[in-house]
Write a structure and sequence with these properties.
Length: 202
């Protein structure tokens, strides 16, 4: 009987830990700090709470010389794709100076990632908690990317974080945490709602 109770306790503790670890509403600290860091391994879903207060959004590459050229071209494709899918309600302009969205190519993670080999991009979004306005975003483009995957799904995923979108659980969604990372295109039957929301917001 004691063994059963002990096993049950460990199970419940593990469950509580899991819920605490994966649920930003419970951990709270990332929300209250006004700084949210996401990776393919961290679940957040603050989507509709956050948005930019201006358009267009400027972007730059803070250390382009460190980037694999393919990641630059994929980022450019991702920017174009988001403009197209929002019918230019969201649009981006390149800048040499300080940008709203800064692309970084770094092996240094923004956050403690458990398994870097599973994570191909990450986004850090800073925002004003009271106004729920996003003030800046940083997107890390890791070097490794499957060659056979031409569509910039990773970059779109991170850019959508930068636009205030969170994860969802649909297996075909570009915002699925454990997506295949090799989408051929955005499935608008699944993700159309995201782009409709962006068009409404901006
Ligand atoms: Zn993500």
């Amino acid at each position: 009987m004691k063994i059963v109770v002990a096993i049950l306790s460990i199970f419940i503790l593990a469950l509580m830990f899991t819920l605490f670890y994966y649920n930003p509403y419970l951990t709270g600290n990332t929300i209250e700090s006004g700084n949210l860091t996401t990776t393919g391994l961290t679940i957040d879903d603050l989507g509709e709470l956050r948005h930019w207060d201006h358009m267009p959004l400027s972007y730059n590459y803070s250390n382009e010389e460190e980037c694999f050229p393919i990641r630059i071209s994929r980022a450019e494709l991702a920017l174009n794709e988001i403009e197209r899918l929002t019918e230019n309600q969201v649009y981006f302009v390149f800048t040499e100076s300080d940008a709203d969205i800064s692309f970084v190519c770094s092996r240094e993670s923004f956050v403690n990632v458990v398994d870097r080999t599973e994570t191909l991009g990450e986004a850090e979004v800073e925002y004003n908690l009271e106004r729920k306005v996003i003030t800046s975003a940083k997107i890390n483009l890791y070097s490794g990317v499957p060659e056979e995957c031409n569509y910039p799904d990773i970059e779109i995923h991170e850019l959508l974080h930068a636009l205030g979108e969170g994860h969802n659980t649909h297996t075909q969604s570009v915002m699925n945490v454990v997506q295949q990372k090799c989408l051929k295109s955005i499935n608008m039957n699944v993700d159309g709602v995201i782009f409709e929301r962006l068009k409404d917001t901006y």
